[in-house]
Amino acid sequence: MGSKLSRRSFLKLTGVAVGSGLAYSKFGGLKLSALSPAEATGTDDEKWKHTACALCLMCPMQVKVKNGKIVDVRGEDIYPWKGRVCAKAYGGIWGRVYAPDRIIYPLKRVGKRGEGKFVRCSWDEVITNFSKKLKEYMDEGHPEAFEIWWGCPVQADNMYFLHYFSRIMGCSISYMHGQICFGDHTSEKSVTFGGSRAGDLVNGTADYINTKYAVIAAQNFPGTVFAPGTQCGASAFWPVYLKAKENGMRHLSVDPKLTDSGALANEWIPIKPGTDGAFAYGVANVLIKEKLYDEDFLLKYTNAPQLIRVDTKQAMKDDAGKYLAWDSASNSAIPLPPADQRGNLSLGIGKTYTVGDVQCKTALTLYAEESEKYPPEKVIEICELPFLPDKIVEIARNLGNNKPAVLFYPGFTTGRYTNWFQVLRIYSCVNMLLGNIERPGGWYFPKHKFNTGTGWPEPPEVPEYPNPDLKVVPGPWGNLMSVELLDKAPCYKEPRDFHPATVALPWDHFTAMQEGKVKALFSTAENSAITQVNTDYVYDCLNKLEMIVVGDQLPKDFIEMADYVLPEAAYVERNQLFTFSALGQDGQEHATAIMRSRTIELPGEVKTVTWFFTEVSKRIGLGAYFENIDTDYGWWNKMLKHAKLPVTAEELVENGPYVEKYPMTYDVMFKPIETRSGRFEMYSNELAEECYFNEKSIWYESQYIYPVPCHIPIAEPKGKDEFYLVSGKASWHQKSATQNNRYLMEDEIEGGCPFSPLYINAERASELGLKEGDMVEVECVGPTKQEEPHVFDDSAIGYKQKVRVHITEGLHPSVAFTHFAAGHKAKSMLPKAREGVLHSAFVPLTVEPYGGGCGKNYSIVRLRKG
Amino acid sequence: MPRYGMAVDLKKCVRCRTCYITCKVLHNIPSQFDNGRKYTRVKLIEPEAGKYPAVRRFFYPSHCMHCDDAPCVTVCPTGASFKDKDGIISFDPKKCIGCRYCILACPYDARYFNHETGIVDKCDFCEDKVRQGKEPYCVEKCIGHAITFGDLDDPNSEVSRMITEAGAVALSPQLGTKPKVFYGNMR
Predict the structure, then answer these.
(1) Is some CB atom of chain A closer than 8 A to the CB atom of B187?
(2) ipTM metric
(3) Which among A166, A222, A339, B166 is least surrounded, fewest beta carbons within 10 Å?
(4) Residue A811 contacts B, CB cutoff 8 Å
(5) At A552, which CATH number?
(6) Residue A333 forms part of a structural domain
(7) d(CA A537, CA A478)
(8) pTM above the 0.80 mark?
(9) pLDDT tens for residues A251-305?
(10) What is the domain range of residue B97?
(11) Which residues of B are less than 8 Å from A743 in CB distance?
């Protein structure tokens, strides 16, 4: 590395103007300095290089590098981007990669945890002490006392490598973030539609450009969304959304808040939090009553015709244990045929059939009976919708009359309340009624995905794995994990406590910390210290650990809890392969492979996480498993080879994306339906057999997993000064990568949607005597253990914080809204990042049965002026 | 000689804020967290209108309107603000004495005073790029392809067609400054 420069020179080099004494750029009192070789030599090279963003997901982009420094950014010229990327891509380079508070040396904590006092230390010191700790746990026979927490598949440095390390060392690994993001949604979609279709349905993969009417709940759609067929964000979705709108799609936003991008919708339906199940059932009620459902679809692809016993509500089976359905030709029960076979099956709405001496009804009848509890006027009342009951009828008719080119989507991010698994189930069943799966304008499954595998090195490339009989099971994002880990063991026992697709079980990790079973932690690409709910409890758990090591580019809350901080390579400073099959605005499927690549030299003593763990492996006697592994190209070439792609990682870096273009093909049965009936399940046989009717299940007879979905009311604000505290994301923000970002956090980028204050409905504010900008004290008052049976820890009750209010007409009266990621605790972050309320601190930790959601929006607060 | 103007089709604007941030970072405009000051050439105007639940939130990016009768040019005592031959309201930083008359005169609040340099700054339609035959950054980077730029005197230019065919209009034309930035599909 070249000669050192002063911090002032560093700022000049990075293109950030040197300001007055107000400049905020220190971390732990360290002087930052860096000089890349290219800058040192002063060469005048200029080249557009292929790489990928990581501020929300991994949009393919190019960066223009001049004299070793990025000077411009653009999207790759492939669908759906066609050369454009969003504000986050620019904020990422100038507000993160080149941030003046970029962490470029290893740091050692010198103050108390959370104080933010660090001094520079050497890599050798970190590796030595970290390895010593790991070896200690290994020698004690408990390597699992060490856990790796990773939070983002695109921001983390090679998640496959981290899982490989876990497999070899035997340590624990957890995608903790995933469970507060989408874990229960994946579980629900697996239960209802089968595992192989779950991911795309969770992500909202649809043929949007042919959609006529889309009812989308929550999530700040379209600004905070997965672009169809990709695992990329709004940069890729907006072109598709605009094309859909141009083609005539009407978009209805169901959300307590008129969000920043939800304001693009044709209509806003402000709904009371937690009542979404009643809303969806209200729609179903009209669809069924007015016969606006797709009978053919229900008979061919769903278990709507499956016979359920009236007496026990269990599936009626024949002597061979097969599920039954009613055959109208023979007027008798027959085994429910495989999907795609309609035969003479009957939906039998309202009918009772007698099989032997047992009375049965169809699954659809049970669903219809449940829906009758939610006539339009009742839905208006429960959901506190500011409309006449006809609005529900209108929405249902718009869906029914435009089917199958319609979408009824509960949003991607889930785990909002303990009833959410059932909310999702009710939504799923409405989509079955609409027959909008694998139909033009409906839900769509890309048919040309590349199967890359994990790229794990295998013997004889490396020695035989330790503990060769260890069972590994699927983990999130195509990873593999030991079945013995905290997140997996409860999902593979008999009967299961949680569905295997639940990503992570955070409360089990916290308990293990409290009990001293988990003793040390490495965290990368996440900020679980404050993103997991019930922050004080989380901090209490973290404080019990013997060692915390956190890697990142910028200060954050978790870093202030760390004993050692690793200066991690940023996303444009390392290599990684991504594949996906995007549905473009041109109506084609684009099977794509891209490489994130190292476009600039690493500043200071920045290293990749794979380098760090490779060094650690040498000190703990596992070096042979990691030596000679090329994480720049070799790893990714192995995955490309696995996918049988005629391109190398080197070529992707040099020449840009590899794309295969295919016409879209609509075929419900393009692969088998992996549910217990082999059909999309309106009545869940899995929930029935695994949980509700299983006396050994911890969820035995719990209505939260009742096989016919039901709406379950959640705890409510009571007093005039009580509100649901709801959080959401701004479309120019996403996660820890966009926080503490000196461009994305600016006041002027916010327009009319300020980031830090607490939003209150104008009329409610008036009743409380609150005016714009007034200070209020927010106190968590629920849900308590008395109000909600699934509260795991309620230490958040009584938590207080002060915040200024923003008065708006665009919010449901029952809600106080804060942006997710406001109110950080870390002193080393931008002062503005600490303004506002820390939403997670106000959320008692709840555990949603079977789906495992953590109730991330389940909080009731009291406001007091002053 | 062209007479440059711009049109924003708000139907295609997805409120992504890319115009704001690209202008900032690619023109090296300091961050608010560098100096505590909110410097920007692009303002995002997003007023809320109506009463719950019949409420809408409007949105448009606003910057120098490059008025044909620009009051900032009229009041500038040194000629630092001037109208170039191609209609761009240009700015010569060497001539600026920091009197800020132009800031007071601009009815669109499009200028800011840079306390570090002691001079005024504002959108110049990325004139250096434009004169190399390229588009301004906000046009080049706009996610929704909502912003068009070109010659207002050419009836076939995209920007002219936005005005004649899509009915794009100037903001507050009653002020009489003859702005050359137009907005279509206001909603």
Answers:
(1) no
(2) 0.97
(3) B166
(4) yes
(5) 3.40.50.740
(6) no
(7) 31
(8) yes
(9) 999 999 999 999 999 999 999 999 999 999 999 999 999 999 999 999 999 999 9
(10) 4-184
(11) 21, 24-25, 31
